[in-house]
Design brief:
By secondary structure, the chain is mainly alpha-helical. It has a single domain, classed as Winged helix-like DNA-binding domain superfamily/Winged helix DNA-binding domain (Arc Repressor Mutant, subunit A). The chain is built from five helices and two strands, in the order ααααββα. It has a two-stranded antiparallel sheet. α2 crosses α5. It is globular and about 45 Å long. This is Helix-turn-helix transcriptional regulator.
């Protein structure tokens, strides 16, 4: 006999702040992109080099979504060849304040996972 799912909780982003946050930065690339842009990696080719494994299409989509959600701005410079740079908006900077504790937790977690005889420093 199947259990009824009618009582299951659903957290739509319009009602739940955590669901909204996860909807905006969901996936493995967006938090990394926000962090990299905050560190000065602000051009498509630089982001692509810093994110091994991301396809050009996926990077373009993620940047477009971050721009749509007003976390990034895209500035096009009228040069030949054209140059595009990304920067964090005030909203993006406020999200960065939430992402940085995750980064710091990762630094601590990596420190415990590294073998004690290595010389790797973060």
């Amino acid at each position: 006999m199947k259990k009824e799912l009618s009582n299951a909780l659903i957290y739509p982003p319009v009602l739940c702040p955590l669901a909204l946050t996860l909807d905006v930065i969901g996936g493995k690339w967006k938090p990394l992109i926000v962090h990299l842009v905050s560190q000065g990696v602000n051009r498509f080719s630089l982001l692509e080099k810093q994110l091994p494994g991301i396809s050009r299409k996926m990077l373009a989509n993620q940047l477009r979504e971050l721009e749509r959600d007003e976390l990034l701005t895209r500035e096009i410079f009228a040069e030949i060849p054209p140059r595009v740079e990304y920067s964090l908006t005030e909203t993006g900077l406020s999200l960065l304040a939430a992402v940085m504790p995750l980064y710091e937790w990762g630094v601590q977690h990596l420190a415990h996972k590294q073998p004690r005889h290595t010389a790797i420093q973060l």
